[in-house]
Amino acid sequence: MTGREQEPEDVQGPEGVPEREHVRVAVIGSGFGGLGAAVRLRREGITDFVVLERAGSVGGTWRDNEYPGCACDVPSHLYSFSFAPNPDWPRTFSGQAHIRAYLEQVADAFRLRPHIRLNSEVQRMTWDGERLCWEIETSGGRLRADFVVSATGPLSDPRIPAELPGLDSFPGKVFHSARWDHGYDLRGKRVAMIGTGASAIQIVPAIQPEVGRLTLFQRTPPWVLPRVDRDISGVERWLHRRLPVTAKARRGLLWGIRELQVQAFTKHPNELGLLEGLAKRHMARAVEDPALRARLTPDYRIGCKRILLSNTYYPALTRPNVDVVASGLAGVDGSTLVAADGSTAEVDAIVFGTGFHVTDLPIADRVVGAEGRTLAQAWTDSGMKSLRGASAAGFPNWMTIIGPNTGLGNSSMILIIESQLNYMADFVRQLDVLGGRVALDARPEAVRAWNHRVQERMKRTVWNTGGCTSWYLDAHGRNTTIWPGTTSEFRGATRRVDLSEYRVLRPPSAPAAVKSRTTDKVEAGA
Fold this sequence. Notes:
InterPro entries: FAD-bind_Monooxygenase_sf, FAD/NAD-bd_sf, Flavin_mOase-like. By secondary structure, the protein is of the alpha/beta class.
């Protein structure tokens, strides 16, 4: 990659204007994954890269999700980069505004702004097997890149049940929690909240005091534990600024506790019964009505779905202006919402907290690989799968941050992201070692072997055995989302690139001797 040849048509147009920019690395997205990749590239001495962002500012999901009450359910000191500690987190669990401000600070502190292309949504990426590069079409123009890092994230494209009968004819306001309409005044309105996930349990208590009536459509009740949240004192923040080792120790303690919990989720789900008892007592303290408690009590093992944290959700559901419909929304008839159990509600506004396109990533429809198929087509039969959560067979010099089976059920995704940044950095190093125009394409057998190991481990986890249907599972019931191990194990598995798991590609016109030496090197490593 360091010896990239420039072709005349890539450099000058008829009037001396560049026709097509060619960069070494293109990063897609400017959330935690994209900004983290940009920082790591700079630390590797790489400055020939761009960050393509579809919106007008950085922040990813923490820019898009600005609904009332939005906050993180991972402690602040663990939900931040190890290389960019923030001693001034105001609370143990930070709100959306503070996390977004942190990401803006990262962009400034690491001098990333010159690399960021705002309002540049990727519309299509096509692998060019002759040039060994990616042709990228964006809303802001076209470019080529030797290597692409896709950091669009799984929580970026809202899912609204478009097939819902009658929704198009609803006369009121409709929006998703991740596209909150701040211009619409909810005061005194009859509002329907669809869904009971992580967003809904924050939205419900935030809007309940101001709406006229709130109807919660609950297809499946969540398990909810207390949220041990508090202000971080000025003394603590002063100590973290003056003695950074104290913040590091705090982060290490938070990490260690969660590492110790993993076995209960991955190997011994029956041990989670103690947590269920805590959750039931938490509910009983707030909900006196036995009929309401019965509707709010899950019938699946805790942990099968995402465990939620809130001290205000249950109290809000007991208020006189709140109705809980223990059934999913089945249809819309004018301003009347009809639940699957036949119950109805008249509403002025519908707020969908129905999650995101996680197992059917929209970016996959826009990536065309070496065989002329999109990534979505490649995943049609077997579901999402990649080598070490990063590389997909037939898509050379392309990797994901937070790819298949990299999600976590009990810890911070920043830990996974940083491990994948290690893998990305070594990927680039390997390309440099190989020299010249070169690409690495994951071997299909390596992808299959990795995916088989992951799915075998998944069989005994609470996410597969807990008796629920969650957004961790795809349409065929396969868990293509969660990592079935500790973050330490994942870090070890992604510490470096194993060349025996990849095919080394050279341009068709490359000298045979070069191709032969490369092949010999790879086969010897196998």
